[in-house]
Write a structure and sequence with these properties.
globular, Maltoporin, Chain A, 44 strands, mainly beta, 5-stranded mixed beta sheet, 22-stranded antiparallel β-barrel
């Protein structure tokens, strides 16, 4: 049995699970037919897979998923889906990928699509908790038109994961092991200045405002005085760190190399009536930030199928994941502290008691930030996460026409997290400075802790009846029509029990419960005429427990015409070279499920009214098959254009600006988005010795605010403390970052036609060689008087180029290039380092009035305006995402007793080309899956450059 901390409902479901497993095991030798009929029935009856879809459904098969370092399923899908944006926004161990399939459809509920595993909805369980080696294929159903059959859950699209089954025949054993070395990407070569302009004596010692040499007290690690900076029109950074303090490379001190390792073993076999797959794997990834923790994930899986009779088949699929994460709770803050610390600070020094100091100052401030080593010494975090994904699937074939498909699934996620802060009251630095580490909800230097327990349960059941009628074969009618009808009843329940306490307990205590129930009915009808014309329609009704007994209708309609199946096409010597030429179109509506929350007093809060999104799409699919040719033997092109609208999207706002209270919903916006996606695949060359395959994906999408239903109300959000404001305004992209603009022309005017610099004063300003207007004497930059939207961080387009080359059936070389064009990031790290006066830009000279130098007055002056377009940077990049070399040792060494022996050398993120001046253009310091909280780089751990060696064995 699993953890006793699980609630009674969960325990009951797990008891049911073990009972059914026992019954299945007892039937493994039962009489019945082969499971080949189950495959046929599933293709006809499975409601989660569409045959010949008229909507855009992208499929990623197991052999297309890269076995790259730090491998998780969501990471493997980056760059693999046409039109979709899978973004690796952090290199922190266990960090999830940000996913946006098509546009932004809601302002508060985010962009996360509905995720299914073998037909079971994932509730709290994330994709990165799953074992990617168990995946047979991933189907990405994009947009409301495709996902209308999923009702309230479908507006953001659907990711349907189908796991592997056992292979029939004698027992097969597969073993794989890999190890990788990871380093942090610093593509922009972000560094701290090795020069400074602090006041010094003749020996280069840093001195305070009174001329005294500043020293570090070894007893309590405080400075004897405050730094004094030379600031003036002609001030430059020209002094080396020498004497009492030296330059410390904090990037080298804190961004270390780290390792990750993955080990797997799986057993597979079966007879004529059964198949079984058992797998166990472990993945451990250490953090690249110094003295931090790790993410350790262990997966167990069992997939069993049995044909009880010639008409009845059963299948049970189980995935169980145990994840331990010890990455420090203050990890992000520690990274930011390192980046905001002046270069002369040596954070490796300990006091006379052997402890690190929290901050190196006298209490009056020296401009240094907190010590990451202190954070790691006095705090720790241990998070244990247990995920269970279980489904039972039965197919009963009543006749050649009618079959019944029943599925029940359960997903439980139990997390237990404890954050501890040790007693700091005896630390000499804390005693002197009165600064110490405190948890976000407490201020106790004698020690405190935060304890969080969460039990999340999702139950999902589906009953589906499918009737497939061929009017010729089944009804003896001379009408070339095939009809597929299916009706589905669906039930879903989600419970989220959360308990959070602190020690001392009087500081903060909270418990809550989030819950949801839905009942749905779906009717779907498809007619195919003579195998070339297809028309379908669907109607779904959803009842939700938190929409006040409201039944919501969702509709879908599709049409497709495959001209390559018509007679004239086959008879043409030209057209018959094109094996498919299909036009398709679809319209549909889907919803974003609202969230209901109960506080400790049992008061219910509904997060928002139900939101719906309506979409239309049109597409063209072309396939060319030339089996007699070596060049371009098989090629395929798919193009889809789509547009969608969300008429009412709610957003909470503060009635009293600055209070931080967001309990009232008073703003309603109309959202729209549109886009195009393209994919091309081809076998460029094929022979008995050499084969070269390529695949190219392209996607462009734009989301904006069309109307503000609440009148002239302006709503601004914030991504975090001391970070740029984000605005929602009509006619702009969603999540526009706002700030002032530095002037680039002396006669520049505002939107009302007024000069920013009065005409009589313009002679006092010049344009520097870096392109900005500066005061001719003081060399300080000049900015606009008010804020403007700086831009949308979303890229103009994203694309990927995937190549695979096979040589002599012995060697396989593959690589993937990802190109993100015209994305933007607000470089908050750079702004804070400018403000502190130690960014490496302070060493870069430019010319003002024919005088050239690294004028620090300009660099100090830029952040003085707050948030400006100076730090809003082009974050476009071209990245070598994956590269691998595989060697088939069985063929190479002619090993007759081995089914598989493959050596693989691979790498990830080995090369990045970008103009972005930060460490990594792909990071995002906002919330994962947020609709608007993105486009900021505030010290998130960059992605990793990884090298891996692996061995795959098969017996």
């Amino acid at each position: 049995m699993l953890s006793s901390d699980l609630n009674p409902i969960v325990n009951q479901r797990i008891d049911l699970y073990f009972l059914v497993i026992f019954l299945l095991l007892t039937t493994l030798s039962a009489s019945g037919q082969s499971l080949t009929k189950e495959d046929t029935l599933k293709a006809k009856a499975n409601q989660f897979s569409l045959s010949k879809p008229a909507v855009s459904v992208e499929t990623v098969k197991a052999d297309q998923l890269p076995t790259v370092p730090s491998f998780s399923l969501d990471q493997a899908l980056v760059g693999k889906v046409a039109g979709a944006m899978f973004s690796s926004v952090s290199g922190t161990p266990g960090a999830p990928v940000n996913i946006q399939l098509r546009g932004i459809n809601t302002l508060i509920n985010g962009t996360l699509p509905l995720i299914l595993v073998d037909g079971v909805q994932l509730g709290e369980t994330r994709m990165n908790a799953l074992d990617p080696s168990l995946v047979e294929r991933v189907e990405i159903i994009q947009g409301a038109a495709a996902a209308a059959i999923f009702g309230y859950q479908g507006a953001n699209g659907v990711i349907s994961i189908v796991t592997k089954r056992g292979q029939k025949g004698k027992l097969k054993i597969d073993i794989s092991s890999s190890i990788s070395q990871n380093t942090v990407i610093n593509q922009g070569n972000l560094q701290k200045s090795r020069l400074h302009n602090y006041k010094t004596d003749s020996n280069g010692n840093l001195i305070d405002i009174n001329g005294n040499i500043i020293t570090l007290n070894p007893n309590n690690l405080t400075l004897s005085g405050n730094l004094s900076t030379t600031i003036g029109p002609n001030s430059i950074f020209s002094k080396m760190y020498q004497g009492n303090f030296h330059f410390n490379d904090h990037f080298a001190d804190f961004f270390n190399q780290a390792k990750s390792a993955t080990n797997r073993i799986s057993l597979s076999g079966g007879g004529q009536k059964t198949d079984v797959l058992f797998s166990i794997s472990n993945n451990r990834m250490d953090n690249n930030f110094a003295h931090d923790g790790y993410n350790n994930r262990t997966n167990l899986a069992l997939n069993m199928g049995v044909a009880l009779t010639s008409r009845l088949t059963l299948r049970s699929t189980t995935q169980y994941a145990l994840t331990e994460n010890t990455v420090n709770y203050f990890d992000q803050a520690a990274i930011v502290s390192m980046l905001e610390t002046k270069p002369f600070v040596n954070y490796s020094i300990k006091d006379t008691d052997g402890n690190y100091g929290y901050i190196y100052n006298t209490g009056a401030g020296s401009g240094t930030s907190s010590n990451p080593n202190y954070v790691m010494q006095y705090s720790n975090r241990n998070s244990n996460l247990t995920d269970l994904v279980q489904s039972f699937h039965a197919i009963y074939r009543l006749s050649n026409i009618l079959s019944v498909d029943a599925r029940y699934g359960i997903n439980t996620s139990h997390s237990s997290e404890k954050v501890n802060i040790a007693d700091q009251s005896q630390n000499k630095n804390v005693i002197q400075t009165h600064e110490y580490l405190a948890i976000y909800n407490g201020f106790n230097k004698k020690g405190e802790s935060l304890n969080t327990q969460r039990n999340y349960l999702t139950e999902h059941s589906v009953l589906n009846a499918t009737a497939i009628i061929d009017f010729k074969k089944d009804l003896n009618l001379s009408v070339p029509i095939k009809s597929t009808s299916w009706a589905r009843s669906e039930w879903r329940k989600m419970d989220d029990n959360l308990s959070t306490t602190t020690m001392p307990s009087y500081l903060y205590s909270f418990t809550g419960r989030e819950w949801l129930k839905t009942n749905s009915l779906l009717f779907h009808q498809t007619f195919e005429f003579n195998n070339w014309l297809g028309i379908s329609g669907a109607l779904r009704k959803d009842y939700s427990s938190i929409t006040h007994l409201e039944l919501k209708a969702f509709r879908q309609g599709t049409i497709q015409a495959d001209f390559s199946q018509m007679g004239f096409w086959h008879s043409s010597n030209v057209l018959n070279k094109i094996s498919q030429f299909k036009l398709r179109g679809a319209v549909g509506k889907a919803g974003v499920q609202p969230i209901s929350f109960l506080d400790t007093y049992g008061t219910e809060f509904i997060s928002q009214p139900p939101e719906t999104s309506t979409e239309s799409e049109a597409g063209l699919d072309i396939a060319i098959n030339r089996p007699e040719r070596r060049w371009f033997r098989n090629s395929g092109i798919s193009i889809t254009e789509w547009q969608r609208n969300t008429p009412n999207s709610e957003y909470p706002y503060s009635l009293s600006p600055g209070t931080g209270y967001y309990g009232t919903y008073g703003a309603s916006f109309a959202l729209s988005s549109k886009g195009v996606q393209f994919s091309f695949s081809s076998t460029i060359y094929s022979s008995s010795r050499f084969q070269w395959d390529i695949t190219t994906f392209f996607g462009h999408q734009v989301s904006c605010i069309d109307a503000n239903r609440s009148g002239t109300l302006y709503i601004a959000g914030s991504i975090g403390e001391l970070q740029p404001r984000v605005g929602f305004q009509v006619g702009e992209g969603i999540g526009q970052i706002r700030g002032v603009r530095l002037l680039t022309r002396i006669d520049q005017k505002d939107e009302n036609g007024n000069y920013y610099i009065p005409l009589a004063q313009q002679a006092n300003y010049v344009i520097a060689s870096n392109g900005y207007v500066v005061d001719a004497v003081n060399k300080t930059p000049i900015a606009t008087n008010n804020e403007y939207p700086l831009g949308d961080s979303a890229p103009k387009f994203n694309s990927s180029f995937i190549n695979e080359i096979k040589l002599l059936n012995l060697f396989t070389v593959s690589f993937q290039l990802d190109w993100i064009y015209k994305s933007h990031l607000y470089n908050m790290v750079k702004e804070l380092m400018y403000f502190g006066g130690f960014h490496n830009d302070f060493n870069k000279p430019f010319t003002v009035n024919q005088s050239t130098g690294a004028w620090s007055a300009f660099y100090y002056g830029v952040p003085a305006y707050g948030y400006s377009d100076y730090f809003y940077e082009d974050a476009s990049f071209l990245r070598l995402r994956n590269v691998s070399f595989k060697f088939d040792l069985v063929r190479l060494m002619k090993l007759s007793h081995w089914r598989k022996m493959q050596l693989e050398l691979s790498g990830r993120n080995l090369l990045t080309i970008t103009k972005y001046s930060g460490m990594d253009p792909e990071v995002n310091s906002g919330n994962i899956q947020s609709s608007w909280n993105h486009g900021i780089d505030n010290g998130t751990l960059p992605n990793l450059r990884s090298y891996q060696i692996g061995l795959n064995l098969g017996l």
